[in-house]
Automatic annotation (TrEMBL):
Gene3D superfamilies cross-referenced by the UniProt entry: 3.30.230.10
Substrates-to-products reaction catalysed: Endonucleolytic cleavage of RNA, removing 5'-extranucleotides from tRNA precursor
Name the record gives this protein: Ribonuclease P protein component
Alphabetically ordered keywords of this record: Endonuclease, Hydrolase, Nuclease, RNA-binding, tRNA processing
InterPro entries, sorted: Ribosomal_Su5_D2-typ_SF, Ribsml_uS5_D2-typ_fold_subgr, RNase_P
Function: RNaseP catalyzes the removal of the 5'-leader sequence from pre-tRNA to produce the mature 5'-terminus. It can also cleave other RNA substrates such as 4.5S RNA. The protein component plays an auxiliary but essential role in vivo by binding to the 5'-leader sequence and broadening the substrate specificity of the ribozyme.
Enzyme Commission (EC) number: 3.1.26.5
Organism: Stieleria maiorica
Stored SUPFAM superfamilies: Ribosomal protein S5 domain 2-like
Subunit structure: Consists of a catalytic RNA component (M1 or rnpB) and a protein subunit.
Keyword Hydrolase recorded: yes
Length: 126
């Protein structure tokens, strides 16, 4: 498998996992994105666990073309910058309400917000 591939094993796909990350995870936001982070396992060494990404785009964001564009940009940003994300976390990303996204702003803010959300969760827990 290529190092920057985005197989199903690197995606948050189940509704239960989405709910867990959104309800109990740490959150970070800027003017473009909102990122939630939650560790894959409690207390274990997470360095060997892959990072996983889930994307949720509300219908209020726009029509199907706009929503799919957001999804492509977020997935591609994650795929190409996986090394910049903390390991062993599930991330759920959504656009900020009323945001008009573009590729450069998403690419710049996604890894930064992922690290910030993971730090917030760790500081809240310990």
């Amino acid at each position: 498998m290529k190092p920057n591939a985005f197989p199903k094993s690197k995606r948050v796909v189940s509704g239960r996992a989405f709910t867990l990350v959104l309800r109990k995870g740490g959150c970070a936001a800027d003017d473009c994105l909102v990122v939630f982070a939650f560790p894959r396992r409690e207390g274990d060494d997470r360095s060997d666990q892959p990072r996983r990404l889930g994307v949720t785009i509300p219908k209020k964001t726009g029509n199907a073309v706009v929503r799919n564009r957001w999804k492509r940009w977020i997935r591609e940003s994650f795929r190409t910058q996986q090394a910049d994300f903390p390991t062993g976390y599930d991330f759920v990303v959504r656009p900020k309400k009323g945001a008009t996204g573009n590729w450069t702003s998403i690419r710049r803010s996604l890894p930064k917000l992922a690290r910030k959300a993971a730090r917030r969760l760790e500081s809240k827990r310990g």
